[in-house]
Each structure stands twice: as structure tokens, then as C-alpha cells.
Amino acid sequence: MSPVLQGILTILIGVGGCIAYFYGSNLILDKLIFPARNDDHGRNINRATMVRPWLFLFPALFALSLYLIYPVIGSFIRSLYNRSGDTFIGLGNYVQMFSEDGFRTAFLNNVLWALVVPAAATFFGLLVAQLTDRLRWGNIAKSLIFMPMAISFVGASLIWKFVYANDPDIGIINAVRDYFGMAPIDVLQIPFWNNFFLMVILVWIQTGFAMVILSAALRGIPEETVEAAIIDGANPFQIFFKIKVPQIKGTIVVVWTTITILVLKVFDIVYAMTGGNFATEILPSYMMDFMFRDDGRATAVAFVIMLIVLPVMIWNIRQARSEMR
Amino acid sequence: MANLKLTDVSKTYGGSVEVLKDIDLDIQQGELIVFVGPSGCGKSTLLRMIAGLEKISGGTLEIDGQVVNDVPPAQRGIAMVFQSYALYPHMTVRENMSFALKIAKKPQAEIDEAVERAAKMLQLDQYLDRLPKALSGGQRQRVAIGRSIVRDPKVYLFDEPLSNLDAALRVATRIEIAQLKEKMPESTMIYVTHDQVEAMTLASRIVVLANKGIAQVGTPLELYETPNSEFVAQFIGSPAMNLLPGEIIETGAQTKVKLADGGVAISNVPTNADDLGMQVNVGVRPEDFVSATDDFIFHGTVQITEALGEVTLLYFQEVNGNPVIGKLQGIHSGLRGTDVRLTADPAKVHLFANGTSLLYR
């Protein structure tokens, strides 16, 4: 069968299956299990209403437990075994990992990423949201800034490879250096600072996300509070930092933590730009180095990443929930 | 504590849409001026122009003899209370009230004293460390008022401050504002509302806005007793004044009008011989109608009665598209479907020609 046909068939079966499940199970519930007739009319309607959410949530709950909770447990168990997976070595993988320089570099780099990228992306997003709010061409500016969101991390990395290229005819940094008569450099090989040149790529991608969410939040601020502040004598900076930002603090935290979680997952940029060389390794790319070669080690790294992400995620969900109230 | 003077003030949006024009108004220190008018008449816009939140398109605004058209809001010496309270949700009551003084870099002792004094005046002392969301609507509005008192402004601006409160709270807060004004007799206040009870009870003078301009300025009772136009006559007072078409048949110190429906009205509005035969509208407020035995201004069949307890409203057939309404003191049951004759004291009969009162010719 041709792949196109196969794709179409998959979609038809998938979507059709969903419709069939929801429609069919609902029908069975209403007509067979709790039919709304005879003496139990009202009671059956109430009972069906109580069961319905679980019925409709079942596929999602099932898929989540199968593909999320099972792998977490499975990974943890796998991380307690050796390279080939046949000998139980307890926490051996973890002990060895923590004693390694490579892991320590990756861990520290990752801390740096987790601090700098969310801060920078949120800051620039907020800045752009505020500056473009009242402009007539603000929406065009926003669309342009949002566009990198649509590019894959590997695609973005390829673009930035050109920006950082050694050849002054290609890379803009070296073009500028060349103009001032300086020799070209490879910014990805400058120790320590090369991390920041990699972070720029993710900030470039994520600023659009922060901007869209924060722009909506800024528009939700009641105009009167701003006018009251104008009458109270606040200047534009004071209005922004003392009136507007505190009112969208919850949204800022949600954006911040969402990007933090993303940062702890991205390996593609490092993988595509430096392959983890020149001390640019971060945890996800470090994990990739072991994957399929030493699954015990790789799952141990994955588990460490999960433990780091978990508290951030819980905080994120809490904030998002209190935002909705 | 200031005089305000508006000269030829106008407002246009986008250079073509005219909202207000030729606004001339003198406001003396210590007055409480109320802007009223139908929705969309520009009363809030006028207030926002005085506040400096909207640009003045033409004319001048003077506060204490100084033209302030281009002075930023904070330096005009005004404070504003918004309909939605506009409290800063992330600040406590104390922080809300001290924000302006903090921005102005006043010494902390002075800020504390001003906040304490305002809080005491508004009975907010116990709530100073609460966030606005932990306060009731009436308390929030008091904080908003406190926020302006703290700044000790020359002019207080109120933009429909009671509209977001429920009926009982509205009455209570209205009385509080009246008492506040009494405690600060020197302060000038401008108050925008669409509620005539607020206007009548609070105002030292009312400004009725209509048709992009000022329809009439006067004390509440002046507007009630001697409205200069049919618009003001019908806008002030509830239910609105009845207007009945007729023709002048006798002139002099008193004027006699033969009504189209057959009644005869006598008014204390003086007319001269030239007015004989003039087509006029006779205006009588529902509450000024009394039942008549022989001579009547109006007679008709009661179609609907509304018993409100203290008064009974009688609705008759329509004249000029509006039902004629009578308001009788006390409870009158069993009037529905009966024929009623009504007349009124000549002192309370208004005459209008082409929409303008004959008193103001």
C-alpha cells in the first residue's frame, strides 16, 4: 500500500474510531445501562450524568497511564541495571554518573540554561508585548516575532549555524568583525561563552510564545487602574513596573516555568550546533550520548531530569490553576 | 479648593466626530457640580477632559485662573474616583491610598498621617492592611474616595461612583458622600451620574448635558421648577413631565391655553398680546396633577394603575406618543377603567413653544 493511502487510512480509522467510541459509549450508557424511562426516569438521568465524565475521560486516562506512567516506572527500573540490562547494579549508574566530569559540566550548563533562557525569553516577550500594544503595525511586528515558534529546533539551529559561521561572507558576527578588520572567530568554540550563543537560539524561538501570552494578559488589565495611576502621577516606567507587571505576575510565572520545563527537555540545539563538544553539553544531550549504547546510564540521566522538572511543573500547574480562578 | 472655568470647550474624535462643543461653565470653589444627561451625551468625556485623561480639542480649561489644557493630570491638582473603583488589586488599602504620595516622594511620616486621617474619616481604619478583593463593594468605593482625599486635591472628580453598588448601598454611600462634602466645605467637586436622585440630592448646581452641549445649568430646584426646555423638563423628575399640545387663547399675567383634547389650562407664565393663538405644549408634572370637578386640563380613562404605597401612578391614553401619567398621594384602588378629570395649580403649569420654555424667551 502506498504511504499516502496508508496515512489517509490511519487518519480515517483514528478519527472514526474516536467518534465511534464517544457516540457509541454514550448511546449504550443512555439507552441500555441507565435508560431514561419508567419509574427510574430522573434517577437514571442523574446516574448517567455521573458516569459520563469517566466514560469520556477513559481513553485519555488510559493512554496517559500506558505511555507516561508505565515508562516512568520502567525507566527507573532499567536505570538500576547495567549496560546490557541483565545485571542488577542498584544505584551504580547514578553513583558513576555523579562522579563524572561530563555529567557535572552538563548539569551546571543546564542550570545556566534554566536560569538564563526563561528569564531572557520572558523579559523580551514582556518588552515586545508592551511596546507593540498601541502600535498600528504592532500586529505585524508580533507575527514576525512569533514566527520562530513554527520552526523546529534543528531548523532553527541550522539557521543560526549560518549566523555564527566563520566565513565573513555568511556569518553576520564575522562580517562585522571583518568590517573592523578583525580576524574571524568561531563563537561556538569560545569556552563558557559558547553556551550563551546556544541559548540565544532558544530565546529567539521562545520570545514569541512569551509575547503572545503576556500580551493577552496585559490587555486584560483594567484600563481604569492605569488611568488612576496616571492621575496619581506615575510615569510610564512606574505604571509598567508598579501597576501593570504586578497585576500579571501570575501569568509571568506561568510563562517562566513553562519555558523552564521546555529548557530542561531541549537537546536538539546542542546536538545540532556543537554535538556537545567544547563544554556545551546539557543534560538532555548528555542523555542522548548514551542512548541505545548504554540504556542504563541514559535512563538514569532521564530520571534525574525528571526529578528536576517535577517541582517546576507542579508550581506551574498550581499557578496556572490559580490564574483561572 | 479652586475655581474652574471652561471656555468654549469642545471635543472631536478623529477630526470629524464631534462629541461636545461650545461648553462654557464657571465653577466656584466649594461647589458640588453634577453633570447629568442621557447616555452618550458626553458627560464622562467632559469629566475626563477636566481630569486630563482626554485631550481638549478646542477652547480652554482654567483651574484657579491658570490654563491647564496641556498640563499633565497629576499636576492639575485633581483627584478622580472611578465607577469601577480602579483600585490597584495587588496593593493593600494602605498602599493604594499612599501610592500617589509615594510617587511624589513625600516623607513617610506625612504619608502615614494623611492615610490615617483619610481612613478615620471614611471608617477604613480596620481595613488598612487588607487587599481590595477582601473588601465589599461599598468599602472599595470608600477606599477609592480615600485615595483621592489623601492627595488633598483642588478638585474632586467622581465618575458615576455609585453605579456599581446595589440599591441599598448606593443610598448609604450617597449619604456618605454628602457628609464628606460637608466635612470639606472648601473643596470643589464634580460628579457625573445618570441617576437623578443622586443629582438632586447631592448637587449645589446641576449641569444638564444634551445634544453635544449644555442644556441648562442651575440648582436642583431651579431645574425642577423652571426648566428652560422640554428636554430638561422631561429629563429632571420621574415619571417625566406630561406635555399636552394646545393653543393660547388668553394672554396677560396669567395665560390661558385651550388644549387639543378639550381641556383648559391656566398658567402663571406671563404672555403678551402677540402670543395669542400661539401653538404651545402645556407641561404638567405627574405629581402636580390633582383631581378636578368641573374645569380640567386633562381627562381620560385610567388604563393602568401602579400602586407604590406612598403614591399611586395612573397611566392614561397616549398624547404625542407618550402616555399621560398622573401621580396621586396615597393609595387609590379601583381607579382602573374609570374616567378621571385632572387639573393643576397655575403656578405649576409650564408652557413650551418649539421645545423652549416661554419663561426663558
Oligomer: heterodimer
What's the domain count of chain A?
2
Contiguous runs where pLDDT drops below 50 for at least 5 residues of chain B: none
The largest pleated sheet of chain B is described as: 6 strands, mixed
Q: N-to-C terminal Cα separation of chain B, in Å? A: 36 Å
Our count of helices of chain B gives 8
What value does the Rg of chain B take, in angstroms?
24 Å
Considering residues with a beta carbon less than 8 A from a beta carbon on another chain, report the largest interface and each chain's count.
A-B, 17 and 26 residues
Q: Order the strands across the largest sheet of chain B as they lie in space.
A: 6-7-8-3-9-10
CATH fold call of the largest domain in chain B = Rossmann fold
What is the CATH-assigned architecture of the largest domain in chain B? 3-Layer(aba) Sandwich
**Assigned CATH superfamily of the largest domain in chain B:** P-loop containing nucleotide triphosphate hydrolases
Write the layout of secondary structure elements.
The complex is a heterodimer of chains A (325) and B (361).
Chain A: H1 3-33, H2 41-78, H3 92-98, H4 101-132, H5 138-146, H6 153-163, H7 172-179, H8 193-219, H9 223-231, H10 236-247, H11 249-263, H12 268-273, H13 283-290, H14 295-324
Helix pairs in contact in A: 1-2, 2-14, 4-5, 4-8, 4-11, 5-8, 8-11, 9-10, 11-14, 13-14
Chain B: E1 4-13, E2 17-27, E3 32-36, H1 43-51, E4 58-63, E5 66-67, E6 78-81, H2 93-103, H3 108-121, H4 137-150, E7 155-159, H5 167-183, E8 188-192, H6 196-202, E9 205-210, E10 213-218, H7 220-225, H8 230-235, E11 242-250, E12 255-259, E13 264-267, E14 279-284, E15 290-291, E16 298-301, E17 304-307, E18 311-319, E19 322-329, E20 339-343, E21 350-353, E22 356-357
Parallel strand pairs in B: 3-8, 3-9, 6-7, 7-8
Antiparallel strand pairs in B: 1-2, 1-4, 4-5, 9-10, 11-12, 11-14, 12-13, 14-21, 15-20, 16-20, 17-18, 18-19, 21-22
Helix pairs in contact in B: 2-3, 2-4, 3-4
